[in-house]
Amino acid sequence: MVFTGIFMIFIGIVDFIVRGISAIVFFLVTQSSAYAEQGTASDLPEKGDYVE
Predict the structure, then answer these.
(1) How far apart are CA 44 and CA 50, in angstroms?
(2) Number of C-beta neighbours around residue 44 at 10 A
(3) What is the pTM of this model?
């Protein structure tokens, strides 16, 4: 049962790391694509409402 506890903690840590990395990657991709589509920052909010 000790192995099960360690395994559960390990899975939790891995899940936390994967969620953090995916969130950072998603943020960077959305930011870079929004800036690449148009240069002006004024119409970024309505441009980010939908994903093409």
Answers:
(1) 11
(2) 13
(3) 0.47
Instruction: Please spell the DSSP secondary structure of 8-39, one letter per residue.
Output: HHHHHHHHHHHHHHHHHHHHHHHHHHHHHH-S
Cα–Cα distance, 11 to 1 (Å, whole number): 15
Structure tokens at 4: 């099960």
pLDDT in tens, 21-47: 999 999 988 887 766 665 555 555 555
Give me the amino acid identity at 40. Answer: T
Q: How far is it, in rounded angstroms, from Cα 38 to Cα 10?
A: 43
Residues in the chain, total: 52
